[in-house]
Design a protein that fits this description.
The structure is a homotetramer.
Chain A lengths: L8 H14 L12 H8 L3 H13 L3 E4 L3 E4 L3 H27 L4 H24 L1
Antiparallel strand pairs in A: 1-2
Helix pairs in contact in A: 1-3, 2-3
Chain B binds a DNA duplex through helix 3.
DNA sequence: GTGGTCTAGACCACC
DNA sequence: GTGGTCTAGACCACA
């Protein structure tokens, strides 16, 4: 797994985790990988994974059974949506529109980018399912 | 000037500077405030301003005359647009659409947010011009 | 370590670093000394070392893993050679020949100086290995 | 006139001045341009030219008649050669060979560069005399 | 432990 | 006056 330099690694892992929840890869009460396993898999320090799990636990998305492992909370998907949506609507969206405006781009320009984005995604998914 | 805690101050200063360029407050070949003056004005350490100016200089947005001061580059606005646009189109836009998609939001939902954003901006501007 | 007064210390550190790369003391993907360790070793302020490392990172010669340290880039030697060679061939060499010409010196004169230089170097190396 | 960023402007002016002496453009006891005239011509601050002239005067290359102007010293050319040669032989040449060695270049490689340099100079001179 | 950032204050060369 | 550099020391997030 590759990480960007502009954000803490443990948060990037959390982002990916949230994606997986929303995409239905992990469902309510599913057991998620152990700290050690995940650390090996994505090649980061175990402490970093611990920080991710603590972060997600504080958000109520996962919970921990002592000596057993971490599990997706019963309302994990709702909590995930709440987490992402709050940040998206109140922070990302306004910032996005601000930059859009500075660059003299309109919502219609976005429509064009959106078409491109969707066709790229389709291509990627086809390739993935072909693998 | 107030700063957020999620990004280095010197980068937030740089962002504001880019905005000012795009809004036409500073034009090509204009002399910009000296390191010391700006430091006093926005209440940060001179070294922090130095870091901002070096950063902008590396991006080709400003240049410096020894012992005279910093100036907006002749193609400063183009460089600024290039800097912002590159990051926006290739990083922010795709990430934005990705989150949008995860949250099951459509471009039409964005249109609603955009109306809200614009009306907020108008209110703000009216307040500013009233001050 | 001793420094000349005609060039910024952080650049002299960078020069020494480049030499070490080219002499094979540090190889691709080697971890280089931490900012603090190097600062202590060569008796400069940690901030000065930071400036050197940021400079080398921008040149693509080293890279950094968050919370771990700095490492020589995979193509660190190539980047180093590119950096030195570009400046040497397009700036230093022509300036050298220009001065040579002004002083009425020929390449054959240089050959004499070169012999002297090499014998001095040999003497120095013998002394070093004797130490 | 254009200046590099890696050396003080007053020294770059002094260098050009020395070249002119060695190329015979200014001869012993010639009057050289006034501070003001030269400052206008090469577009620098008059104080900078003053600094150049003081520097050259300290080296014995020019002298000053109060209220009249600056003149090339009787032994100006010898002093100029002495100045350049000292720095060249003891500083530039060793540094040049050091970089040459680090880059694995031989004196024979220099011979190639020298041919290129000379042919470029010839082209330039032909163009100048055609103007 | 690591690097990243910031403050405070100093000295310097330069224009 | 200007920017460039350096020191000293601090705090923080991160691995």
């Amino acid at each position: 797994m590759e990480f960007r330099g502009d954000q803490a690694i443990y948060l990037q892992i959390a982002d990916t985790f949230c994606e997986n929840i929303l995409l239905g890869k992990w469902k309510a009460l599913d057991r998620i990988p152990s700290v050690r396993d995940l650390a090996v898999e994505i090649e980061v320090n175990p402490n970093t994974v611990v920080k991710t799990y603590i972060f997600l636990q504080e958000k109520g998305i996962i919970f921990n059974k002592r000596g057993v492992g971490y599990f997706v909370a019963e309302d994990g998907m709702e909590k995930t949506i709440a987490l992402l949506k709050e940040n998206f609507v109140y922070t990302e969206v306004p910032r996005f529109f601000k930059t859009m405006h500075l660059l003299n781009l309109s919502l219609d320009d976005m429509r064009v980018y959106y078409q491109e984005y969707k066709s790229r995604e389709n291509t990627k998914n086809q390739k993935d399912s072909a693998d």
